[in-house]
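We now fix the convention by which a protein and its fold are recorded. These numbers are not coordinates but entries in a learned vocabulary of local backbone shapes. A record is reproduced here so that you can trace the correspondence yourselves:
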Amino acid sequence: QVQLVESGGGLVQAGGSLRLSCAASRSLYSINTMGWYRQAPGKQRELVAGITAGGSTNYADPVKGRFTISRDVAKNTVYLQMNSLKPEDTAVYYCNAKGPISWGMDYWGKGTLVTVSS
């Protein structure tokens, strides 16, 4: 139903910034919620931030005030601006799309690695 391609990961020092991008293969208005998740080594995947088709956003407590999710509907792209990065933000970051019930499943990108050095 949708393909997702992430980009923008890399190595950054603590206190630095990165911006992740997730390009979707269809209009963001047709996707109920776009989200960023992350999975650190040995840990479960967790929600980082989400944005609905209507533009409402939500954030996990550990990233509130540091990360911002946004979108460019003309480009079918969602962004995650990450500031004041900490070593504990190191993880593979995945883009997620939750569509209508008719989709029957979520869709995921392949992930992009973010490494924050101390």
Notes: The radius of gyration is 14 Å. The first strand starts at residue 4 and ends at 7. The mean pLDDT is 96.
